[in-house]
């Protein structure tokens, strides 16, 4: 019976064959312990000399790291193993013998590992991180499908900037200039006017020359947009969504969290509702904490966000930022037009902003005014303005950065480990 490591629990006491690679090995006298991996998980294979004979035992002892094989044996329960099962090996059929695999079971520098990212992905730690990433994606689709959203895919090549910034990658689109998308939001607003509740999940690009542990040049964003929904209603969706994916990771990735030594008690606290403070209250809090380097009207840096988050056991919403430091499309607060109906969700443990969202301007004349203020002229934004011209309604949306969320849930320090092939300021290889 041919199977995979993640399915061996169904074959206890039976002989199975698994296609696997050798992650590591050790031997103790007349027993060899093979650390096997097959892409679905890691499992120990035990080769006993008296059971397989001298030739097969010598073959097992001679296996080199990352050699591929078909290994056959009996599945048994193993209470000592975090995985819970192991194989009593009977036969090994070598497919390919690997020679001088560069990432050996010792400490390697970050740059060396990043140069060998295509091979580093095979490690137990990276496998755990990618499994958590996959679970967040799976749970995202489940949450929004169950909530009646439809997935709409915005373009990656665009004729304008979503945020009105200059941090864009330019490219030539035949005889006109184009950009790699920094957000699908504007297109999702158009989709919401057609389908009501929509979400996208795809790559975005920011030409920021940043080297912090929170930044990537290419990253993935989940962006819902909801017609007939105000800012407060959107906040409820945001906290319910983040709670849902956190609890899904806890339920379905316990082995991976253990592999990463993640403190799961921290994740258990990620349950709605989340505390909320206004930007003004956050400034006052920072002043009390001795931060004299930030004034009202300035954006928060990483130390400010971390200090604010430390006062709460859960993620915290910072709402009602000053209009002048936020995007042109955010709706002003009717009670105070100097601030906008928006919120950033700040994760605890120093992981910073995970979600950014707002209610969008739905008034045509006000949006025209914003166009003038931000010099958004020409045909590139004409279609976006027309969304307010033909059946405009109150609508809200938000964006969640996948890699920052993976880093937070997994307890990983740097986002470069949370995407298969990271694109950084100094890295386009491999």
From TrEMBL:
InterPro entries on file: Aa-tRNA-synt_II, aa-tRNA-synth_II, aa-tRNA-synth_II/BPL/LPL, Asn-tRNA-ligase, Asp/Asn-tRNA-synth_IIb, NA-bd_OB-fold, NA-bd_OB_tRNA
Keyword Cytoplasm included in the entry's annotation: yes
Keywords: Aminoacyl-tRNA synthetase, ATP-binding, Cytoplasm, Ligase, Nucleotide-binding, Protein biosynthesis
Keyword Ion transport: no
Subcellular compartments: Cytoplasm
One GO molecular-function entry: nucleic acid binding
Single Gene Ontology BP annotation: asparaginyl-tRNA aminoacylation
Major place of residence: cytoplasm
One Gene Ontology cellular component: cytoplasm
Known EC number: 6.1.1.22
Subunit structure: Homodimer.
NCBIfam families linked to this entry: asnS (TIGR00457), PRK03932.1 (NF003037), PRK05159.1 (NF003483)
PANTHER family named in the record: ASPARAGINE--TRNA LIGASE, MITOCHONDRIAL-RELATED (PTHR22594:SF34), ASPARTYL/LYSYL-TRNA SYNTHETASE (PTHR22594)
Family: Belongs to the class-II aminoacyl-tRNA synthetase family.
Protein name (Swiss-Prot/TrEMBL): Asparagine--tRNA ligase
Organism of this sequence: Pelagirhabdus alkalitolerans
Protein's gene: asnS
């Amino acid at each position: 019976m041919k199977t995979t490591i993640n399915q061996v629990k169904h074959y206890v006491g039976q002989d199975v064959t698994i296609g696997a690679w050798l992650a590591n090995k050790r031997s103790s006298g007349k027993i060899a312990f093979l650390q096997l991996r097959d892409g679905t998980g890691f499992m120990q294979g035990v080769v006993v000399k008296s059971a397989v004979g001298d030739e097969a035992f010598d073959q097992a002892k001679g296996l080199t790291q990352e050699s591929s094989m078909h290994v056959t044996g009996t599945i048994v329960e193993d209470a000592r193993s975090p995985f819970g099962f192991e194989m009593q090996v009977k036969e090994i059929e070598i497919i390919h013998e690997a020679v001088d695999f560069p990432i050996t079971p010792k400490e390697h520098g970050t740059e060396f590992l990043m140069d060998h990212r295509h091979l580093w992905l095979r490690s137990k730690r990276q496998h755990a991180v990618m499994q958590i990433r996959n679970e967040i994606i799976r749970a995202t689709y489940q949450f929004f499908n169950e909530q009646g959203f439809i997935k709409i895919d915005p373009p990656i090549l665009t004729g304008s900037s979503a945020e009105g910034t200059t941090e864009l990658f330019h490219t030539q689109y035949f005889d006109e200039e184009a950009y790699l998308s920094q957000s699908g939001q504007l297109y999702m607003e158009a989709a919401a006017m057609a389908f009501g509740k929509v979400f996208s999940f795809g790559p975005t690009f920011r030409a920021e020359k940043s080297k912090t542990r929170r930044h990537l040049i290419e990253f993935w964003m989940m962006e819902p947009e909801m017609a007939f929904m105000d800012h407060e209603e959107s906040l409820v969706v945001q906290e319910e969504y983040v709670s849902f994916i956190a609890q899904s990771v806890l339920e379905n990735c316990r082995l991976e969290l253990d592999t990463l030594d993640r403190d799961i008690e921290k994740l258990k606290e990620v349950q709605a509702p989340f505390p909320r403070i206004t930007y003004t209250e956050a400034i006052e809090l920072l002043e009390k904490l001795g931060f004299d380097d930030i004034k009202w009207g300035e954006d928060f840096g990483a130390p400010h966000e971390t200090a604010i988050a430390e006062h709460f056991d859960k993620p915290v919403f910072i709402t009602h930022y000053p209009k002048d430091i936020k995007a042109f499309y955010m709706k002003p607060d009717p009670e105070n037009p100097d601030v906008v109906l928006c919120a950033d969700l700040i994760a605890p443990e120093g992981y910073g902003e995970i979600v950014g969202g707002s209610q969008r301007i739905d008034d045509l004349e006000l949006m025209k005014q914003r166009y003038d203020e931000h010099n958004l002229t020409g045909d590139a934004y004409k279609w976006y303005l027309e969304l307010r011209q033909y059946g405009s309604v109150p609508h809200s949306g938000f964006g969640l950065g996948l890699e920052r969320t993976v880093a937070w849930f997994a307890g990983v320090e740097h986002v470069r480990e949370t995407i298969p092939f990271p694109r950084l300021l100094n890295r386009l290889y491999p």
